[in-house]
Amino acid sequence: MDPGFTAEQDEIRRTLRELLDKRCGPEGLRAALDTPAGHDRALWAALAGQLGLPGLALPEAYGGVGCPRTDLALAAEETGRALAPTPLLATSVLAAPLILALGSDDQRARLLPRVADGTLTAALAVPAPALATALALTGPGGGDWSGGGRAGGVQARPAEGGWRLYGEAAQVLDGHSAGLLVVAAHTGGFVRSRTLLFLVAGDAAGVVRTRQTALDATRPQARVQLRHVEAELLGDEAADVPGALADAGDFAAAFLACEAVGAAGRALERTVEYLGQRVQFGRVIGSFQAVQHRLADVYVQIQAARSAAYYAAWATGRTEDVGGLALAQALEALRLAAAEGVQLHGGIGFTWEHEAHLYFKRAAGDELLFGPVHRLRARAAERAALFTRTEVTV
Asked: Could you report how far apart the first and last alpha carbons of the chain are, in Å?
């Protein structure tokens, strides 16, 4: 791994930070969260039009920029720093790679160019709270998380040469506003049961979408109800859905780790700025040794998490499987930075008007959706067979 950034990566990060600083300040962020979509559509259009961010990791044949997925993961550090409310995670990190990996030539040609230019947003819909399991972050990714033939989840049935879906998925990231839903549904009888992915238009007849109240408002979530909805099978019935989901999960983990590192770094920056201004006992409180020790601990945690996140971004798509470990490290760093930020801001850190709570909620919300941390590490240990018992013959 080369620890340095290329000129293109530096330019992407610099331009993205400038754009987000202009369009995603504290007031703009709060205004975007209060909109029905839960994100700033003008900001999304700018990210697509000026940077090509939604299609950064998509092949040029489908209207993308053609950069490696590493570049998109590294760009996430800047979106995390600003807590940018965009459908980038749902569209370009979770849904688009599945379409690229499993879709037919027609499906790719029809959908991916619209994803790349920002005119089509997408969401991955799996039954709650199975997102981390489906992405093989906290479990093997198999099993009956999609419904398993029992009540709950989403069921798929062949009908009139196509498919119809019935069921419900909750905690769907940006599911209330996405133009396209990639739905994981259970199909087949008990013996031949399996999970397949289906394409459903967001405004299709029989689709009922309701925005849910989420702990982290910067990641809007929705409950999606499917009432005998016509659906298009993604790819074919022989598709390796668990493998594609696991690959998407490893990339998502690297992306989220970089996002968390960016958020943690910004939370620490804001805390240091405040401690250099607040005066107590005739001195700025940032000059007290006990406070400096706490900040130093946070800094070390963030730097360690940043190294892990960068390595995971570089390793994505290779044989190394480190995304989950990097995400665990980054979520811990963000949780520590946000918690210390709230405490060291004193009374103002607990107020709704201050931004400190937004970083704390991002840490807690991501761990609820993609963790918890101890299960991310347990899954990584399982994959590496760290605790496999060996028989000793005497």
From this structure: 43
User: Any residues with CB less than 8 A from the CB of 58 and at least 6 apart, and which?
Assistant: 64, 65, 66, 92, 96, 100, 112, 115, 116
Entry pTM: 0.94
Question: Which parts of the chain fold into alpha helices (H)?
Answer: 7-23, 26-33, 41-46, 69-81, 88, 96-102, 105-116, 131-134, 241-275, 289-315, 323-344, 356-370, 373-383
Cβ count near 293 (within 10 Å) = 9
DSSP 226-295: EEEEEEEESS-TT--HHHHHHHHHHHHHHHHHHHHHHHHHHHHHHHHHHHTT-EETTEEGGGSHHHHHHH
Which amino acid appears at position 322 of this protein? V
Q: Which residue blocks in 61-139 are alpha helix, DSSP H? A: 69-81, 88, 96-102, 105-116, 131-134
- pLDDT tens-digit map of 339-368: 999 999 988 887 878 889 999 999 999 999
Q: How far apart are CA 119 and CA 36, in angstroms?
A: 17
Tokens in use for 278?
């607040």
Q: What percent of the chain has pLDDT over 70?
A: 94
Those residues with Cβ within 8 angstroms of residue 352's Cβ, 6 or more apart along the chain or in another chain: none
CA 380 to chain centre: 18
Structural domains in the chain, CATH included, are 7-121 (1.10.540.10), 123-240 (2.40.110.10), 243-383 (1.20.140.10)
Least confident of 20-24, 32-36, 341-345, 381-385: 381-385
- What tokens were used for 28? 């703009």
Average pLDDT score over the chain:
91
Two tokens, residue 331: 């979520």
Q: How many residues does the chain have?
A: 394
Per the DSSP assignment, residues forming a β-bridge with 224 are 169, 209
> What single-letter amino acid sits at 380?
A
